[in-house]
Amino acid sequence: MRGTRAAQRYAKAILSLAKDKNSAEAVNEDMISISKTVLNSKDLENMLTSPVIKNSTKKSVLLEIFKDVNAVTKGAIDILLENGRIAILHIVARQYIIQYNELNNVRQAVVTTAVPLDKELEAVILAKVKELTGSEASLKNIVDDSIIGGFVLRVGDLQYDASVSRNLTRLKRELTNNTYVSKI
Prior knowledge:
Layout lengths: L3 H17 L3 H17 L1 H8 L5 H11 L5 H12 L6 H15 L2 E8 L5 H15 L2 E8 L6 E6 L2 E6 H13 L2 H4 L2
Function: This protein is part of the stalk that links CF(0) to CF(1). It either transmits conformational changes from CF(0) to CF(1) or is implicated in proton conduction.
Membrane topology: Peripheral membrane protein
Subcellular location: Cell membrane; Membrane
């Protein structure tokens, strides 16, 4: 993805400054908000990448949308505007979140289920992640009805597949390769 290396450098610098000012957690919340907002608004993303719109206009729009952000986050927006890198704001935000999570030993867990998770199931799955990895995790839920039931949990390289479709596939393979059943 274009701008990823620059975004990593900006995110590292922002995280370092936020740690020095004891506001890393608040900046992380800001970055989560910025990332979600920019990715969910095509108009905002187009405005940030447009060479026609002046930086002063971009700054006023961003500060109006994100008026309750931390001073470190406002400074990051200013630096990105000054350096002509405001188009990668959402990438910087994502990189900050990744680096913040690594710093705090929080892993990203992706759970695929047939139906959306409720709070109770989320807590059970987060406990399972802690049991398997020994670290905390943030959870992303993907709904895929093709797994029929159960769940597929991915944390880094680790995958725990407890889906109904996997069990049905395994059972079908066992019955197909069974010499007694194949003769019937």
